[in-house]
Each structure stands twice: as structure tokens, then as C-alpha cells.
Amino acid sequence: MAADKASLPIVDFVRLRDPNTKQEELKLSNMPYQPQNTVRDVYKMLPGLFALPSEKKEAVAMVKSPAFVGYTKLGAETTAGATDMREQFDFGTVTENMWKEGQPQWHRMEGPSEFPDYPGCEALLRRYLSEMTDLSNEFLGYVGESLSLPSDVFDPFKHIMHRLKLVKYPQCPPGSVGVGPHKDSVGLFTFLSQDTVGGLQVLSKDGEWIEAPPIDGSFIINVQQGFEAITGGVCPATTHRVIAPTSTTRYSVPFFQGINPSLTLDQLKSAAAHIVSKVPVSDDAKKRAVDVPSEYLSPLFSCLGEAYLRNRVISHPDVGQKWYPDLYTKYSQQKLV
């Protein structure tokens, strides 16, 4: 179906897999398919997980990790200069890449995850990360085909480190913002599962906020800054925000597909030129006039990994000040160009 400015497009993943229908459906960007059993199990776990005693949650606090994984208490993260009204757990896929003295600082973000002391939590989340890695890679192949390119065209840009976040938005006064306007910065695409409460809004190309209501058995798929960088900004990252719930708790589970952090903008200009030429250009001047900046498009950073580190340091000032004090001072005074 076609999308208008008041709604998001929807794509049926079963039809996406069907050679007879996938070219038609690939023009759309919202996918009603997910590993149903795993998603259901995660949502069953969330209330109990967030109800853990504070000492158990703080035992895996993000501030203990230079990789920006772990628990973040309510009010400890900032977005668009404002305090987020959410608490969350962050995890990453298993990787053996460990930072060594002399390597760039952004390599430290590839460290191991710590899982909270909750029955079945680690095994369930590792399963979720594995299933979502497979699903996101399959989807990326379809994106290539939709541009009349080989399904493996994006393989050189992929990375083994993906991220998963479990988020709780508590009940707040009317008009409160759960998380302010931002663009996801881990890599290529975000696959967001949300409960039935709602509150997610997306900035349209007309510069207007539109609702992204929950659809049972679906993901919201956001373009991340990494894909925006691959296309030289032609395909902009999805700017979105969450309006805090007023009468109940909201849960969401975003999976962030990673990008090779060693890539530079100069490398992308040459390596992705054939991709950029295939991406349709739309008139989104109104959106750009009110949009938030993208670290990944800024010439201030040596590579995408440094741009991502800057994003994390600013969003989590307690982690930044503990593990990257010099960079925190530098980045907090820096204006993106």
C-alpha cells in the first residue's frame, strides 16, 4: 500500500521473501514480521527484570563499562540536550574483539556485555540477538535488490557488533517527552519492537511529527546514521522521538544493526558511489530545516567509530567522564558541522 504523510508504509515480510511479490513490497519500509516466540518471551520478562532491586540492576550499571553496555537508571541519559524519561538495559552481540593499548579509543566500545542476575535472561537475550542478526542481514539483502543491485552489495559495510536495548518508559505527566528527537547511531537499520501503548513519533519529509502506532507482530524499521552516511545523506536517517505515557508503563525493544566502524567518509564516497546513484532523491527540504544533525556525516571525525563514540559520550555523560574524560571535555564543547 502507498503511504501518505499521516502514516508509515507497511511491508509484509512473507511477501518480501516471495520472488513474485518482493519487488512490489520493497518500496515500503515497515515490516510486520518478527521471531514471534522470542519477542513474546522477552516482553514477558521485562516487568520482572525492571522490578529487580536497585542493587541488582546497579551491579551491571553502564557506568562500569567503557563499551556503553549495561543498566542506565531513570534520568541518567540525555538526548537533544534534555533528560530522557526512561530506564534501560543495553547489550551487544558476542565479540572477541577487545581493545588493546595504542588502538583508537572507539575500539573500546566492542567490549563484552554484562547480563543482570535474572532467571533465563542471558540465554533469552543471546537468542534474540542471534535471531535479529539473521533477520536484519536478510532484510539488508532485500534493500540491495530493491535498488536493482546484488543482494550482497552492503556486505562490505556490515559489522559483527550489533546492539540491543530493553527500555521502560514510566508513567509521566501529560506532555512529557520520553526521549527527545534523535537519529539512531549504531549503524545501518533499527528494528524496533514496541508494546501496545504507543508514543513513538517520526519526523516526516514535510517536517511534521507523525504517529508510529504499534501493529501486532511487527517491527518499526528506522534508517540509522550509518546507512545515511553510505548514501552520502541522500537517504536520511529517521528522526524520531517518544512521547512519555501518561497512564501506564511503555516497553520497547530496539535492535540496532551495526556498521563497520573503521569506515571513513572518503572511503564511503568511493566504495558506495554505485549505491548512491541508485537511491531515489525526494524533496525533504522541510524536514532538513528542522532536523537534528548527524555525527556520521560530520568531517570532524576520523571514522564512523569515532562519530559513534562521540554520540555515546554525549548521551551518557557519567560513562563519558569516567572512561573518556578528555574526549568528554572535547565533545561537550564541540558543535557538529
UniProtKB/TrEMBL annotation:
Official protein name in the record: Fe2OG dioxygenase domain-containing protein
Species of provenance: Fusarium piperis
InterPro entries with a match to the protein in the record: DIOX_N, IPNS-like_FE2OG_OXY, IPNS-like_sf, Iron_ascorbate_oxido_reductase, Oxoglu/Fe-dep_dioxygenase_dom
Domain Fe2OG dioxygenase positions: 159-259
GO biological process, one term: small molecule biosynthetic process
Family statement: Belongs to the iron/ascorbate-dependent oxidoreductase family.
Pfam families: 2OG-FeII_Oxy, DIOX_N
Annotated PROSITE patterns: FE2OG_OXY
GO molecular function: metal ion binding; oxidoreductase activity
PANTHER family the UniProt entry points to: 2-OXOGLUTARATE (2OG) AND FE(II)-DEPENDENT OXYGENASE SUPERFAMILY PROTEIN-RELATED
Keywords from the UniProt entry: Iron, Metal-binding, Oxidoreductase
